[in-house]
Amino acid sequence: MQTAHNIYKVIVLLSTYNGEKYLQEQLESLIAQEGVKVDILVRDDGSKDSTTAILNEWQERGLLKWYSTTNVGCCKSFISLLETADDGAYYAYCDQDDVWLPNKLKLSMEKMVATETENPGKPIIIHTDMNVVDENLNIIHESFWRSSGLRPDILKTFPYLCTCNSVNGCTIVMNSEARKLILDKYVEQETIIHDVISALTVAYHGGIIDYIDVPTMLYRQHSNNVVGAMQYNKLQAIKERIGNIGRVFRKNMDTFKGANKIGKISIFSYIYHKIKYLIIR
After folding, report:
1. 4-280: which CATH architecture?
2. 100: phi then psi, degrees, rounded to nearest 5
3. Which among 30, 112, 116, 169 could disulfide-bond with 93, CB atoms 3.0 to 4.6 Å apart, if both were Cys?
4. DSSP state at residue 169
5. Which runs of E-coded beta strand occur in the chain?
6. How far is CA 63 from CA 9, 27, 70, 110, in A?
7. Contact 161/246 with Cβ under 8 angstroms?
8. Can you give the pLDDT at residue 61?
9. Phi and psi (nearest 5°) for 259?
């Protein structure tokens, strides 16, 4: 949705769970976004700490809206947020423990508008790189993609995204066509999470996965991360795969089965793209 003076409305979808330690800092970074109109919608997943008290305070100030039902886990919580959000806007997934740089949504929306202009009516996801930081926001790696050995220029199609996901949920901005598609095609499963489901669904059904090779947020690493950053080394990665071949095989089979609940890829294509990506990355 475009408002006056080319200001775009982005609904930030934030799922919280026992997030009292870092939540205030993240919320401050959301309302500090430049060049966009930000609405914050929060679903709490059954917090036992002071998270809901923080959300109540922010809601009383008119800075966000929040709701809670039962504990359903990260993936279902984000899908619930997608369902609950208003129609006709742009949407951004958000984690509770990071910090967004002030130009995060502005840069993503500039890329989104350019991509929509070239691909009218298409479902589109835009994602970005991140700075990896410690608990105190000291930079560990300037680039999550490069430290993790990710190639978003390659990981844009369904076969490649099946074998390796570079679309981190906390960086995603999607248009309303992508939101409708994800909700329409959503199949509940345990093996892959909301950001992977979103990217695979859009890619499989003819949508666009595009990216900005710029860090737009501080990706905080701490002991309670659901998903964290890892330093990538090609030789070390190959050794670990050989040394843990049974675990690697089971993990890949789970991913393969999960991907086939969203689209269709043969085991031969999956293995081909997996090996090819491991070589060229």
Report:
1. Alpha-Beta Complex (3.90)
2. -90, 135
3. 169
4. G
5. 8-16, 36-44, 65-68, 90-94, 99-100, 124-133, 139-141, 173-174, 208-220
6. 14, 9, 24, 24
7. no
8. 97
9. -60, -35
How large is the average pLDDT for residues 231-247?
A: 54
Q: Which residue has the tokens 């991140």?
A: 130
Residue 128 clears pLDDT 50, i.e. is over it: yes
Residue with tokens 């958000």: 94
Retrieve residue 12's tokens.
């930030």
* Residue 9 three-state SS: strand
Element (H, E) at 53: helix 51-60
Which tokens sit at 137? 């926001």
Phi-psi region of 2 (alpha: psi -120 to 50; beta: other; left: phi over 0): beta
Model confidence at 224, pLDDT cuts 50, 70, 90, reads: low
SS3 112: helix
Rounded to two decimals, the pTM is: 0.89
Q: Which residue is it, tokens 């390659």? A: 154
Confidence class of residue 250 from pLDDT cuts 50, 70 and 90?
confident
Which positions ≥6 away from 278 have C-beta within 8 Å? 237, 238
Token pair 């509770």 is found at 96
CA distance 90 to 88: 7
Q: Residue for token digits 């892959």? A: 192
Residue the block writes with tokens 């669904």: 201
The predicted pLDDT at position 186 comes to: 95
Alpha helices by DSSP H, listed for 99-219, are 104-118, 144-148, 158-163, 176-185, 194-204
Q: Are 160 and 175 in contact (CB under 8 A)?
A: no
Is the per-residue pLDDT at 273 higher than 90? Answer: yes
